[in-house]
């Protein structure tokens, strides 16, 4: 007997379970295919079009050749990398972590997010996340059986801002965890010290756990990035997540990490060990070297992306978009209404044919789709000549 597992209305149950039914293929697949078909410049997905430092690439080759990490590395990550992560947290943020018990290496930040939510959330627990959110958050909350509660960042003169009263009102008896992201993808918001302090005070007052995704920690342009874990009362309740992908422009290596108090790391490791167990052995040695690069590297990365932000933001403004200049990350969110448009989806689907550029409609990052309808995100982690060509193409929208 054959079974039609794809039947949806009646008959056999669908293959994809109910928790994941709303997460079909991502918009990135659709838009990247569109970019390919139309020969467009793809400013949709956020990956750099040039690799990170040559010496770090060489370090990975050396590790491979020397047979370091070619077999299963230790579950928590290779000691060299855990030590380097602990040193990095102290060097840049003044946070002290024991590399043996308070650091965990993961398969990118993506696995760290999944493992943290799977470890800390009981089915039915509410998880508050800042909307629009990075697309894996909703799916990971769903996989953990949690209930997502969005708190919407709204556009202001100074970019997208968090309403602290709304955040406070969103906390209920069932809230287990705040899922924070700063610098924030896709809006480019960098939460201020005052906002972070208020979030920390709320977490302490309501005894909440906090998972904070800080993968863009080195890409804050207009104000400093302050880790949530550094606020009073947060050390024992915060899981901090970061990744080598964004900081060293090796998104394909998928080396990420968690830093937290030992009990939290133990909990997250319990989930992580059954997701991938371990990953990317030789790359772990290379990332250990990367984390120890001089300050000039980190400043250079930030300045390079700041200049690219300005180039693309100005180009988009000249083309007629309202631009929410990002304070961090490598994405800029625009509003298409000044161009006489109101639907970011329709706009993004038509843009490749109109002028050969691909962008992402922010609505996909919202539960309240209507809140995100007019916003469109462009990535600027691309070569200057590519951004210049994109700007030149987008100018045609203004005429
Ligand atoms: C906010 C945020 N978190 C996590 C990730 C994923 O990081 P990784 O590639 O290290 O899994 C991304 C990548 O775009 C991101 O923007």
Topology (elements, then pairings):
Layout: H1 27-38, E1 41-42, H2 54-65, H3 79-93, E2 103-107, H4 108-120, E3 126-131, H5 135-143, E4 147-152, E5 154-156, E6 159-161, H6 164-170, E7 175-181, H7 193-205, E8 209-213, E9 238-243, H8 244-248, E10 255-259, H9 262-272, H10 281-291, H11 295-318, E11 322-324, E12 331-335, H12 344-355, E13 357-358, E14 360-361, H13 369-372, E15 375-379, H14 384-394
Parallel strand pairs: 1-13, 3-4, 3-7, 7-8, 8-9
Antiparallel strand pairs: 2-10, 5-6, 9-10, 11-12, 12-15, 14-15
The structure holds pyridoxal-5'-phosphate.
Pyridoxal-5'-phosphate is lined by residues 46, 108-110, 134, 181, 185, 213, 215, 243, 245, 251, 254, 256.
What letter string, H or E per element, gives the SSE order? HEHHEHEHEEEHEHEEHEHHHEEHEEHEH
Based on secondary structure, the structural category is alpha/beta
The radius of gyration over CA amounts to 21 Å
Strand order, largest beta sheet: 2-10-9-8-7-3-4
Largest sheet: 7 strands, mixed
Number of domains: 2
Small-molecule binders here are:
pyridoxal-5'-phosphate
- Classified in CATH, the superfamily of the largest domain is Type I PLP-dependent aspartate aminotransferase-like (Major domain)
Going by CATH, the architecture of the largest domain would be 3-Layer(aba) Sandwich
Number of strands: 15
Q: Strand percentage, roughly?
A: 15-25%
């Amino acid at each position: 007997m054959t079974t039609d597992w794809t039947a949806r209305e009646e008959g056999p149950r669908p293959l994809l379970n109910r928790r994941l039914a709303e997460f079909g293929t991502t918009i990135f697949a659709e838009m990247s295919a569109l970019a390919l078909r139309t020969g467009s410049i793809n400013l949709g997905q956020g990956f750099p079009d040039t690799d990170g430092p040559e010496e770090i690439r060489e370090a990975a080759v050396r590790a491979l050749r020397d047979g370091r990490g070619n077999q299963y590395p230790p579950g928590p990550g290779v000691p060299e990398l855990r030590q380097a992560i602990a040193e990095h947290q102290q060097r840049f943020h003044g946070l002290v972590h024991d590399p043996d018990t308070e650091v965990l290496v993961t398969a990118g930040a993506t696995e760290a997010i999944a493992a943290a939510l799977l470890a800390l959330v009981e089915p039915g627990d509410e998880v508050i996340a800042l909307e629009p959110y990075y697309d894996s958050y909703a799916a990971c909350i769903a996989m953990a059986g949690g209930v997502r509660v969005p708190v919407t960042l709204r556009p202001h003169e100074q970019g997208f801002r968090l309403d602290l009263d709304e955040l406070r009102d969103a906390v209920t008896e069932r809230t287990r965890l705040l899922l924070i992201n700063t610098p924030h993808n896709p809006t480019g918001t960098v939460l201020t010290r005052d906002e972070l302090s208020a979030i920390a005070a709320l977490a302490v007052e309501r005894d909440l756990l906090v998972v904070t995704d800080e993968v863009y920690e080195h890409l804050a342009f207009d104000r400093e990035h302050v880790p949530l874990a550094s606020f009073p009362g947060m050390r024992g309740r915060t899981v901090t997540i970061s990744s080598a992908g964004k900081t060293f422009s090796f998104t394909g290596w998928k080396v990420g990490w968690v830093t937290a108090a030992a009990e939290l790391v133990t909990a997250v490791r319990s989930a992580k060990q059954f997701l991938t167990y371990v990953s990317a052995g030789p790359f772990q040695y290379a990332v250990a070297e990367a984390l120890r690069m001089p300050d000039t590297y980190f400043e250079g990365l930030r300045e390079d992306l700041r200049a690219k932000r300005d180039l693309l933001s100005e180009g988009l403004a000249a083309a007629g978009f309202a631009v929410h200049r990002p304070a961090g990350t490598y994405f800029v969110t625009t509003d298409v209404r000044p161009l006489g448009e109101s639907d970011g989806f329709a706009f993004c689907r038509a843009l490749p044919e109109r002028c050969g550029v691909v962008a992402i409609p922010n609505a996909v990052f919202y539960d309240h789709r209507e809140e995100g309808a007019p916003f469109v995100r462009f990535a600027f982690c691309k070569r200057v000549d590519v951004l210049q060509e994109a700007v030149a193409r987008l100018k045609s929208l203004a005429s």
